[in-house]
Each structure stands twice: as structure tokens, then as C-alpha cells.
Amino acid sequence: MASQLRLRSALALVTGAGGGIGRAISLRLAREGAVVAACDLDGAAAQETVRLLGGLESEEGTSCGAHLAFQTDVSDTGAARHLLEQVQASFSRPPSVVVSCAGITRDQFLLHMSEDDWDQVIAVNLKGIFLVTQAAAQALVSSGCHGSIINISSIIGKVGNVGQANYAASKAGVIGLTQTVARELGRHGIRCNCVLPGFIGTPMTQKMPQKVLDKVTGMIPMGRMGDPEDVADVVTFLASEDSGYITGASVEVTGGLFM
Ligand code: NAP
Fold first, then answer.
1. Using one digit for the tens of pLDDT, what is the confidence trace for 220-237?
2. Atom of ligand 1 at shortest distance to CA of 156?
3. What's the CA-to-centroid distance between 41 and ligand 1, angstroms?
4. What pLDDT, in 10s, does the model give residues 36-59?
5. What is the strand order of the sheet 68-71 is part of?
6. DSSP letter (8 states) at residue 41
């Protein structure tokens, strides 16, 4: 049974690991045998994810190492570098799976959006992924290790959304960044893909008015919002060798919305 685990020897770094999707990804990767370095701005939330991973281990006997939590602001250059150093020092190797899931919204119509709201969203959602990806890639290349980098973008990065100029721009940027990283790092055995979730039930979407959620749900061919686990399944596929010849791809997990 244990030999069938797809991520048996993987060390996975997950940012935003205390949030709805990041926690589901951490749990799913650990179920496949990965050891997880769970990072979040909210250190207590990252710790809680690690506590849940511990429970999983004793229930299923899947993982073979101690998962660890890290408190980090991915938009801070020094902090992102320090995160990679801490992870490498803690596990004596760079992460072979890197999932950038940390993200924020600061919604406002373009006519009223403040420069600060623009800057904050770009700093976390786009620059944060650049910083983590660059630090992880440098660690992998210098140690000669292969890896799989997975960035969480959004379907909004492809189609835009009223009230989300900052968010849509950041998520579109993640697609371009991902494709460029895939082109540059393929020869080093490092793949880079992104996932474009639609509307997923998490604290992020709980902030949306029920009226809007009902309207969106009515537009989804599959007739329901997604669960964090729907995204986690695809991330796990992209992390594993089952997707060994896929790089630079943007995989939509939307229930068919905006196809
Ligand atoms: P969430 O529950 O709010 O989780 C996001 C997590 O990221 C939170 O724990 C948050 O911590 C953390 N975070 C925020 N800023 C950070 C920073 N500077 N450094 C490190 N961590 C930071 O949201 P989610 O729905 O799971 O979203 C996860 C990702 O999926 C995001 O990139 C989001 O844009 C994307 N996505 C979500 C949906 C959806 O429908 N939910 C759809 C498409 C894409 P705090 O709680 O302390 O802020």
C-alpha cells in the first residue's frame, strides 16, 4: 500500500497553508506521502494545519516525517528568502514540491480603487509568488534536484471580474510568470504549472454577498461551487510524476464556469 503513494519521498512547501485551499492541499499532499512545510502569514493557522496533518498520520500511517509550520509574509523579500533557508535547514534539502497558495482580495470598483489596495494585492498575489518561486528554484538548481512548482492563479485572471481589477491583474500575471518559469527551468528538470480555480467555498468567498454567490452558482454548469478538495486533487496530480510531461499549463478547476 505504502509503495503506491505518489509523493512518498517529496518535501512540499505550501504557502497560504492555513487557509481554505492551502490546508486542503497540505492534507492531500500528506495523504500521498509528502512531508509538508506549511507556511502562512497567520502562524497559528499554519500550526493548526500541521496539527491536522499529525492526526492524519496516526489515522492512516501515510507520512514518514514531521511536518512543520512556518510563519512568513511571502510579499516580503527577506522573509521569502529566509523561509526557504529555514525549510532547507529543517529538512536538510530543498522542497521538491512548491505550492504558492497565499492570496488576498481587496475588492473595489476601478473608479474608486486606492493605490494601496492595488499595491497590496499585487505584492501578495504576484510578487509573493515570484519571490517564493525564485528562492525555491535557486535552491533546487544549486542542489541539482528536480521539482514541481504549482502556482494558484484564478479563472478571474483569464476573464476579469467586476470589482477585482487588482486581483484579476495579479492572477493574470501569475499565468505569465508560470509559463516563463516553465520555459526557463524545464532543462533543470523543474516543471511549473498553475491552477485556475473558479468559485471555491473558503473564507475568501465567504466574504462575498450571498446574492452574488447565488448568481455565480447559477452560472456554473456543474451546479455547485467547488470544494477546496477539488483544487487539492489537481494540485496533487501536478505535483506527482503522473503529470511528468506537463509544464507551463493552466488547469481550470471551475465546474465548467467561463469555459
Ligand atoms: P483563504 O482561506 O483566505 O487563504 C489564504 C491564506 O493566505 C490565508 O491563510 C492568509 O492568511 C494567507 N496569506 C495572506 N497573505 C499572506 C502573505 N502575505 N504571506 C503568507 N500568507 C498569506 O483563501 P483561499 O480561498 O483558500 O485562497 C487560496 C488561494 O486560492 C488564493 O491565492 C486565492 O486567490 C486562490 N483562489 C481562491 C478562490 C476561491 O474561490 N476561494 C478562487 C480562485 C483562486 P490570513 O488569513 O492571515 O490573511
1. 999 999 999 999 999 999
2. 43
3. 10
4. 999 999 999 999 999 999 987 666
5. 68-71, 35-40, 11-15, 97-100, 147-152, 190-197, 250-253
6. S
